[in-house]
Specification:
Shape of chain B: globular
Shape of chain A: globular
Largest interface: A-B, 25 and 21 residues
Structural class of chain B: alpha+beta
Low-confidence stretches of chain A: none
Distance between the termini of chain B: 33 Å
Helix content of chain A: over 70%
Number of helices of chain B: 5
Strand content of chain B: 5-15%
Largest sheet of chain A: none
Mean pLDDT of chain B: 80
Distance between the termini of chain A: 17 Å
Order of helices and strands of chain A: HHHHHHHHHHHH
Helix content of chain B: 40-55%
Oligomer: heterodimer
Number of helices of chain A: 12
Order of helices and strands of chain B: HEHHEEHH
Largest sheet of chain B: 3 strands, antiparallel
Radius of gyration of chain B: 14 Å
Low-confidence stretches of chain B: 89-100
Number of strands of chain B: 3
Amino acid sequence: MTGALIRAVNRISRMLPDERRQWVEALTAETVAVPGRWTRLAWVLGGLAVVAREMARQMLGETTRELSRMRGYVWLAPAVLVVPAVLALSVGPVPLVVTILFGLGGAALLLYRRAPRGRAPVVVYAAVVGAAAAVAVLTAVVIRQYPQAASGAGAPLYGSVLALLLAGYVVATVLLTRTGPDVARYALVGGLVSAALWTLAIPAGSLYRVSPAWLAGLYYAGLAAAFLGPPLLVAASLARRTGAAEPGILAGAATGMYAALSNLVGGLVLVLAMPERVPFDSDVLARHHTAADILGANVGEDLVLFIGLLVVWPLIGAVAGAVGTATALARRATTTNP
Amino acid sequence: MVRVGHSPQTLAVLAALTEDGWHHGYDLAKRTGLKSGTLYPILVRLADRGLIEARWEQMPPTGRPRRHLYRLTAQGAASAPAQEQARSGTPRPTRPAVAT
């Protein structure tokens, strides 16, 4: 057990820079001198505390450095407050598009000097900016056709959160491409696959009732696989290639991010393409009877779900990525040291 | 300039290192009674500040991994508890030696 724990601690310590990792190796190298099974176990567990402390220190240092570099853009803070203020006054198509594009513009300005370089990062960056702009335009078109979609009391809040999240996605993408072009590239492909399966499966499940219990079970298992599978596989693939944990976990989170963004675009396209055939919510169908009402209510109520996924999918993707990374690194270690 | 005002744990580590020669982690843990999760961050910090130097054991015995060894630098020796005590006249902190 102690041996397995030592291997785990040493493996996790790979996330640290070399000059820091040697301290964790120094700690685990002492284990043989420690008498007593439980005392030895406690000694190795101390290694986890050292890794956690070092990682926290690194992250704090990086955050402080990033913030100090961005101090010239402090004036953007009031601008961020303008987004909710404008949307609080009106959630029509024009204010929504203007505020989302304003948010994207702010993010682009913020990153002007730090634009991604190299083909793959630029492609990923362009895809994310394009998807965010597409969300703005598609949402505006839907609201223009079906004003009841934005008539709810929560619409200004949802619109503001959406605008800020999209800007955050752009910033996160640039930071991600700096970690390594492969992370962003793998994550974009995985995210597209995940979203394609999920976005099409949700309305399909509503259209074609999956009534037998075994079929329903199979359907939900398929949904779970579409949601979790790509982040897990992308992370495992990167971890196996690089032998490091950080790219894998980051790729899992980024896969979730791009899946949620693609899902939002796909959902809006589906709603516009099949206004009477995309009943996302059976409660909505029970309460509304005309196509316009059904669509308006669907868009209004399901927008919350879509926005929620923009937050939740990356987090769950990071967890799935950690599982995939750990599995891949364990297999790699077994292959290297049979 | 060496920062003054070390924590009692850091002073205990510096005190344990004042004896001549190189020391390894478990030896320091025994002398100071500190757990590994406390001891190593202190060693990292002391090394960052140039108060101790560290090196890997050159020729470890067969069947045991090489150890990381530590000793005070001249700067570290100047800030060690015995010297601080001599300067300030206050007694050096003592800790029970609890094996970890």
